[in-house]
Design a protein that fits this description.
- It is a single chain.
- Helix 2 packs across helix 11, helix 3 crosses helix 10 and helix 5 packs parallel to helix 6.
- The radius of gyration is 26 Å and the shape is globular.
- The chain is α+β, with helices and mostly antiparallel strands.
- Helices cover 33% and strands 27% of the residues.
């Protein structure tokens, strides 16, 4: 697919009701976005497809939906209170604050720094390369220091250290904390996975690139518990499963996906191995999906903090095992954005431009559109529409505007099939079905329309 700049995608998504700026009538809120009528349908379809592939279709997989706010000791045990921070630097001249590693990446191509690099290295790299403030152009920096990303809140009516709580920065910790209860009630045996989709919050200092990086975002995470002896082999299996989802289920263009093995010196402290799957967003290749070998770090940390055992007991030998955890984690908002970037195109048809969202059938906000050729045919065509939605299939009824313009709108929002009821339909008992990608049309007898639609739905 052709690639466009970010502004093109933002305009498209706003114009058709996929994504809106939050609080727009009050001037908006920076880096906060709302999913509109079409956006919420597409986003729900993405989550449902992920759930079907990684929970429903896998026999040793269960789900969880945990609270956003947890006991503060959860975040002490996980290390977030002490070490969940970004390296920041301030311009003394204008007061603007920047992520030091991102600043270096932008102005010193090829520099080998990350958010985990020593702050002295980051400071020296910025001053040594005479990087100027992108806002005011001055070169007058503070030293780099760490800034905690946790969103703080308070329980009850008083605000002090005893009532301090935090919005979760990731969904996975509840899976570790609930490990014993999940194991007891689901009666799973190793290996098994626990999956969760939910909102997380990070007080990012440099959110941006549309919905790619925001302070409030949704994650789809899998924590796969397995035997230590099998963990490296299982890691490769999960890389293959995620690859299958991206290439066969979503059908991403392979040229726009990269697999980046994270070097050992850049791994998170809990990780034995991590692969970042990157997508070619408008800003360039950036992380879409991470797969991490988390070892036993999380379960051991929570055992140490809580004093409770979080182990698997082999039902045959009685041996207590602390499972290894493999974590494939994807941001739903990033996946949404990547899918739009991959499937959106502008094509020339009869010297006109046609916007098309080439979504897989399961992801399309509306699977079908019923289009009466004239509003005089509204009553009869509405019967077809009613039959479709009664089956629980998403369908839209559109009678406004010329048929050509309505086809173009349905192409743009990704509707795979349009069903047109014309003036001959009453006499011939047929409708015209138009396919989005090829624009081919065929006449279908209304009495056989149910069978035709079922084949499209379950093909």
């Amino acid at each position: 697919m052709a690639k466009y700049n970010q502004e093109k995608y933002v305009t498209f998504l706003k114009n058709y009701g996929f994504v809106f700026a939050n609080s727009e009538i009050y001037g908006g809120l920076a880096n906060a976005w709302d999913y509109g009528p079409l956006g919420v349908l597409l986003k729900n379809n993405i989550k449902n497809l992920w759930w079907k592939e990684f929970v429903t279709k896998i026999h040793n997989s269960v789900g969880l939906d945990s609270a956003i706010i947890s006991n503060a000791r959860v975040w002490k045990a996980s290390g977030h209170l002490a070490g969940f921070s970004d390296p920041l630097i301030d311009c003394k001249a204008c007061g603007q604050r920047f992520r030091a590693d991102k600043l270096i990446e932008e102005f010193v191509p090829g520099a080998e720094v990350t958010e985990n690099s020593p702050i002295e290295l980051l400071t020296d790299t910025i001053t040594g390369n005479h990087i100027k403030c992108p806002n005011c152009g001055k070169e007058d920096w503070t030293n780099v220091r760490k800034f905690n990303l946790m969103f703080k809140t308070f329980q009850g009516v008083t605000e002090d250290n005893t009532t301090t709580l935090y919005l979760r920065p990731e969904t996975c910790q509840s899976i570790f904390v609930d490990f014993n209860q999940i194991l007891r009630t689901s009666r799973q045996k190793l290996p098994f996975s626990v999956c969760q989709i939910g909102k997380s919050f990070r007080n990012e200092i440099t959110p941006g690139n549309f919905i790619f990086r925001t302070r409030e975002f949704e994650q789809a995470e899998i924590e796969y518990f397995t035997y230590p002896s099998d963990s490296m082999e299982e890691f490769d299996v999960w890389v293959e499963k995620v690859s299958n989802f991206l290439f066969k289920i979503i059908s991403f263009d392979k040229d726009d996906i990269k697999f980046k093995e994270i070097p050992k010196n850049e791994l998170a402290h809990y990780s034995k191995r991590t692969i970042d799957i990157q997508y070619n967003f408008p800003q360039g290749f950036s992380e879409l999906w991470g797969i991490a070998h988390r070892s036993t770090h999380d379960l051991v940390s929570h055992m140490n903090e809580s004093g409770k055992e979080l182990v698997y007991v082999n039902p045959v030998s009685g041996e207590k095992i602390t499972p290894i955890v493999i974590e494939p984690s994807v941001g739903v908002d990033r996946l949404f954005y990547a899918i739009v970037c991959d499937k959106y195109s502008v094509e020339k048809v009869d010297n006109e431009e046609r916007e098309v969202l080439h979504l897989p059938f399961e992801l399309a906000p509306y699977k079908f559109a019923v289009l009466p050729l004239s509003n005089k045919l509204e009553d009869e065509s509405k019967k077809i529409y009613d039959k479709i939605i009664e089956k629980g299939v998403s369908c839209i009824f559109d009678v406004s505007g010329s048929i050509g313009k309505r086809y173009r709108r349905q192409d743009a929002i990704g509707t795979p099939y349009c069903i047109t009821y014309d003036f001959s339909s009453n006499e011939t008992n047929t409708v015209t079905v138009r396919e989005r990608d090829s624009m081919k049309q065929e006449k279908i007898n209304i009495s056989k329309l149910d069978d035709y639609l079922i084949k499209k739905i379950y093909k």
